[in-house]
Amino acid sequence: MKTAKFQLEPLTCPSCIKKIETKLGKMDGVDEAKVLFNSSKVKATYNEEAVSADQLQELIEKLGYPVLN
């Protein structure tokens, strides 16, 4: 298992957290996804044989949340 961390632009609503966590959590290979509202950081634990950090970032950005790092 690997861990990927992403810094997002400031989140404006708590429902953003649920949306990101739910969508990432449904991806094949993702074990856990956590979003910290106050710091706008995403931490995802995933199986690198099933999914890549680039794919996680792509999904986050498709949801409308630009990744800063």
UniProtKB/TrEMBL annotation:
<keyword id="KW-0479">Metal-binding</keyword>
<dbReference type="GO" id="GO:0046872">
    <property type="term" value="F:metal ion binding"/>
</dbReference>
<dbReference type="InterPro" id="IPR006121">
    <property type="entry name" value="HMA_dom"/>
</dbReference>
<dbReference type="Pfam" id="PF00403">
    <property type="entry name" value="HMA"/>
</dbReference>
<feature type="domain" description="HMA">
    <location>
        <begin position="2"/>
        <end position="68"/>
    </location>
</feature>
<dbReference type="InterPro" id="IPR036163">
    <property type="entry name" value="HMA_dom_sf"/>
</dbReference>
<protein>
    <submittedName>
        <fullName>Copper chaperone</fullName>
    </submittedName>
</protein>
<dbReference type="InterPro" id="IPR017969">
    <property type="entry name" value="Heavy-metal-associated_CS"/>
</dbReference>
